[in-house]
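I'd like us to work through together how a protein chain folds, taking it slowly. To get us started, please write out a protein record for me. Go ahead whenever you are ready, and we will take it from there:
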Amino acid sequence: MNTGKIHIFLQTLPEDLRYALRIFRKNRSFTVVALLSLAIAIGANTAIFSVIHAVLLRPLPYDDPQQLTMIWTSYPLAKISRAPASGPQLDEMRKRSRLFKGIAGIWVSNLPLVGEGEPEVVKQAQVTADFFSVLGVHAAVGRTFLPEEEGASRNPVAVISDGLWRRRYGSDPGIMGKTIRTARGQFTVVGVLPHGFELLFPADAAVPTEIQVWSPFSSPLGQRRRDVGFLRMIGRLNPGVTVSQGQAELDSITRDLRSQFPEFASDQIAVQVIPLQADAMKEVRSPLLALFVGVSLVVLIACANITHLLLAFANERVREITMRAALGATRSRILRQLLTENLLLAMMGGLAGLGLAAMLLKTLPLLSPGAVPRLSEVTINIPTLLFAAGLCLVTGVIFGLAPALEASKVDMVSSLKSVGKNLMPSRRRLRRLLVLAEVTFAFILLNGAGLMLRTFVHLLRVDPGFEPNGVLTFTISLPGSRYSDDGKVTGFFRQLEKDLSVLPGVQAAGSTSHVPLDEFSNWYNYYYPEGASEDQQKTQMADLRCISASYFQTMKIPLLSGRYFNETDDVAHPRVVVVDDLLAQTAWPGQSALGKKLNVEAINEGEFKQVWVEVVGVVKHVDYQSLVRQGRPQVYHPYLQSPRGNLPMSFVVRTAGSPTSLTQPVKQTIAHIDKDLPITRMRSLDDLVATARSRTRFTTLLSGILGVIAMFLACVGIYGVTSYSVAQATNEIGIRMALGAHRVDILRLVVWQSMNFVVLGVLLGAICSAALAPTFSSLLFQVKPIDMLTFNSVVALLLVIGLLACVLPAMRASRVDPMTALRYE
């Protein structure tokens, strides 16, 4: 386009826009339907893009986040690929690596705060001194850690979160150098982290996003046991170093470690290096991308519908366009006017869609809290606005180009001689192809929604191995200053359990080291049965749990054989365990597990050691990590034989009523024993189960909404095309009826002609859905990607809806008066 044409375009643009607005005001029904379709499609698409941009595309809030990696330890013999590292393993990697700028470790636990304000328990992270420099985070006030502060047991220091600083210490500007009192001693505050800082790790790393207190490890990591993994490792690559190069270097280092240290050789340890951004968001990537594909299909269906409307609308304007052409308007001028109208319509729909998107973004976090990380941070920002503008431009061209081209090439002679006829060249095939596309896309969306619905139904039916209804849980960490030996600790827990069990409405009370479906804690290690060869001793891992004697009864975990624990299972008697049915079948297939000997890790004299135990009971497997993936086998130790010292213990209290009704009585009971004891993570087991279902519920809900929208738009499209075809064929129908055709014949003819493309669309949609089936597999649970019940249901639904959309215009056609129709001929 040369300068003169650009000048003419700019001169005529305001006139074209004013004329377009007059056209829209004059044809309000068309405008409202078109804008509503566009607003729904663009609004949904923009909202999902905003989520994808914030969660998947926006860099993590650290310095040069593309250099950050997760470093996982693998145990090939036990088929464990994402395990923590031991202290010596991390220490050796830090010393030997040259391609990593730094490798840091973190371990998170509960920390009771005492002193100022009410006692409370917060999350504490023990980290290597270089953790914040590796992560790329700087203190907002003060500093982070110095190298010499790692491994120093005297004069411990801490960095606290901005939230804790404001909430507990009143934003005290003099906080630097002051001490905070905890159940593990005093820490000198040296820094406060920035406002809004959160730690974004993969969900299976068991590292919470909000940590309130950070401190360096108090003892040298290199002096700890090589066979005890507890550290989550992150690495920062040097500039210009790729992940594959970093992986190769750590592989070489790991081979050297296996050759030098027997513990690493027997475990056959390996490592995986994964970009932190990809790893942190891996659980939500597939659902979000699937939803984005879904909303894109909704946009295409909406474009097809608006194209129908514009084709019909353009036919009504043929005489107007012909008169403009007769008065000297060129085809390019007419085409520009029509495209301006279409783009203006798209922009108006886009503005309405932005408003809808803003409302959706406020609603999404409420639909399923915690389902998607960083969801609360999603906003309408510059990238979102640019995406919405581009989407408006593309949709305006998609739905407006064909009708504009059609309308701009009307034959003036034919149009000026005709009145009340279809003055545009026939585009019946184009309209039918649009219906074909709509039905195909609708089938894909409805099939995806059906699969997710079936998945969620199966998830609701999952037996987690315990009965969550009516159970309140909370966690207690006893301060070492007042509970310095195992006798005092076990005495406290036994007394508290006894007092809780006699509260009004309480049916049972128990305690455990790990609550099911609590994502921020775990304990597992190798096990092997008596008689296992040396090669077999490092091939199986199990989750390990310390529980009180009444835990199984409180949780209603079924006993399959043998017995539960009792009060005589203490340090004065031989060590015993209860195992789940999964471990019993794996260790002793076809045999009874009762009386068998098992080598497992236990707490012995305050340390984690491998010991021999006897199996006295078998219980049902419990879902501790996930409802959709089978976890490791489980071994339960009686708490009296493996006291956890000052490590946290969680209580479970069952009531016939609402668990929340126990909140105050439980707090009062604990305060009666120790008024300064903080309580944390008080919630019902139902809440934990609901959280475990949240991500699937979120995806199911949104995919269901998209499926309903697609079905509605497809129905409108089928109805619109059939109605338009009937209106254009009125004369033909009149002739047929004048020649003897019955109303049933006309009804059958119209329905058959319209349903041909509906049936073809259903068939094509089924083929496309089958081809896309593998992409759904990661989102499904106990449902095959090609599920015949879902397929058949979607086929039946679309055929019924398509038939209804065709029958109504067909019935109107069958009632045409032949004389009236022929009068216009």
Q: What stands out?
A: The radius of gyration is 34 Å. DSSP finds 23 helices and 24 strands in the chain. Residues 415-426 have pLDDT under 50 and may be disordered.
